[in-house]
Structure formats: C-alpha cells, structure tokens
Amino acid sequence: IMETNSISTLNLILGYSLLIVPLGLILWQKIPLFNSAVIAVARMTIQLLFVGFYLQVIFNLNKPFLNILWIIVMIVLADSTIIKNSGLRLKYFAFPVFMALILGTAAPLMFFITVILNLKDIFDARFIIPIGGMILGNCLQADIIGIKNFYNSIKKDEKSYQMSLGQGASLQEAVKPFFREACLNALTPTVASITTIGLVFLPGMMVGVILGGQDPLNAIKYQIAIMIAIFSGTAITVFSGIWLSLRISFNDYGILNKDIFRGKS
Questions:
Q1: Which tens digit of pLDDT belongs to each residue from 180-193?
Q2: What are phi and psi of 122, to 5 degrees?
Q3: In the beta sheet, which residues pair with residue 201?
Q4: Do 57 and 214 meet the contact criterion of CB atoms below 8 Å apart?
Q5: Within 10 A of 103 (CB to CB), how many other CB atoms are there?
Q6: pLDDT of residue 263
Q7: Per residue in 83-100, pLDDT tens?
Q8: pLDDT tens readout for residues 51-80
Q9: Tens of pLDDT along 123-154?
Q10: Which residue, among 219, 244, 203, 230, has the nearest Cα to 111 in the 3D structure?
Q11: What is the 3-state secondary structure (H, E, C) of the chain?
C-alpha cells in the first residue's frame, strides 16, 4: 500500500496562486463577485483549519459522546442553514427540520457502518464523523431546494391549492401535487450525480480512498456504498422535513400560515 504524499504548508500557500485565474477573469469582465469570492475562500480556509485541528483532538480521544456531539453540532448548523436559505422562520421550522436531519443522517449512517463496513465500534470517529458529514452535506442542499420549492409553490399557486380544499380535499391530499414537485426538484440533482458518476467525474470519496493508498476496486466499493447512503439520506430528509412541518405551517382549515416566511407579517 502506497503512502499518501503530504502537502507542506509552503506548497499549500503556493496553491493559492491558482486563484489568480478565476479572480483575474472576474476582474477583467467586471463581474460583481470578487469580494464574495475572496471572502468565501478566506472563510473556507479558516473553517477547514479549525475543523482540522478540532478533528485531530476528536480522533485522538475517540470518545463516543464527543463523536455523537460533533454530529449533532453539524446537524444544528445544517438545520439553521436550510431554514435561512429557504426563506422561512427558524422558530417554526427548527424542530421539524432538525428531526428530519436526524432521521436522514442516522439511519443511512448506522446502516453503512454496521452492515456495509461491519465495524465493531460503531462510534469510531474515523468513520462516523466523515461519513456522517458527507451524508449530511448532500441532504442540506436537497432540503433547501425541496422545502423552499414546496412552500413557495403553494404560496404562488394559492388559489389552486384553496380550490382543492374547497372541493373537500384533506390537507394531505391538497398538498400532494406540490409535495411531489418539490421532491422531484430536490432529488433530481442527486439522481443526476449518480447517473454520471465514474463517467463524467471521479467523486471525492473514491479519490480520497485511492490517494490513501487503497486499491481502486476497493475505492469503487466505498463510493457505491456512500452514494447509496447519500441518496437514501437525502430522500428521507426531504420527505420527512416537509411532512413534519405541515402541522405548524397550516391551520386547522388547511390555510397556509404566512408568518412562516421571513420578512412577512
């Protein structure tokens, strides 16, 4: 097994010189993105350095309580990010989205670790944190698309929705077409990624396992397993995130509560 080449601090600093190309193009074409791009790169660097140092401590200690706590912290941050980017109020959606993320992350993560990897220590930091993070990261974007699309579509086509209610449909029946469309929009990017994986691009986990010195065939097995886990987790969080929020988003008569939207009275 080959060892992974280490990247020195100097070489990493030199790597930032590659940013001259995209930033130069942005300045040349006067695209109003320069400041945002610089800030994004700076934030990425600081955040990853912090996580890197913190994970070193977590991996060395490898305590189940700390490992689970770190997963919960990631879920809380993902929860607030999803709600913020969906244009909804945190006080209404914090709990249902949090529960959806717990279900969508824990179920495929535990299946991956216990059934696919067959690990004895199911809370091993080297596995539970990075794999949980990969599943959660993919759920995050899908949830933003799904939840935002669902509530914005009902708000935009409220007459059609209320007509369904007026014709005797229950809340679940009236929201069904909006729910179906939201799930379609949320899951399509993941399905497209699965379709093109290996042909159009080599995914992160596969590349990481190969760079770690593993056989390419073993790397492929890891990648297939993680994509199945990601797709499963994404579907669970999108479906449960919307359904769990229905009770707080509509009144007893099925009317949408406009207070759920940020910036609205």
A1: 999 999 999 999 98
A2: -70, -10
A3: 197
A4: no
A5: 17
A6: 72
A7: 999 999 999 999 999 999
A8: 888 888 998 999 999 999 999 999 999 999
A9: 999 899 999 999 999 899 999 999 999 999 99
A10: 230
A11: CCCCCCCCHHHHHHHHHHHHHHHHHHHHCCCCCHHHHHHHHHHHHHHHHHHHHHHHHHHHHCCHHHHHHHHHHHHHHHHHHHHHHCCECHHHHHHHHHHHHHHHHHHHHHHHHHHHCCCCCCCCHHHHHHHHHHHHHHHHHHHHHHHHHHHHHHHHCHHHHHHHHHCCCCHHHHHHHHHHHHHHHHHHHHHHHHHHECCCECCHHHHHHHHCCCCHHHHHHHHHHHHHHHHHHHHHHHHHHHHHHHHHHECCCCCECHHHECCCC
CA 123 vs CA 21, 47, 58, 112, 188: distances in Å:
42, 24, 12, 12, 32
Give pLDDT, residue 265: 43
Pair 92, 150: CB distance under 8 Å? no
What is residue 201's predicted lDDT score, i.e. its pLDDT?
65
pTM of the model: 0.85
Query: Cα separation of 105 and 146, whole Å?
Result: 17
Mean pLDDT, range 112-131, rounded to an integer: 92
Which amino acid belongs to residue 47? Q
Q: Are 19 and 41 in contact (CB under 8 A)?
A: yes
Contact assessment for residue 112 and residue 226, using Cβ atoms and an 8 Å cutoff: yes
Burial of 228 (0-12, 13-18, 19+ CB in 10 A): middle
Average pLDDT estimate for 110-124: 93
What are the tokens at 143? 């949830």
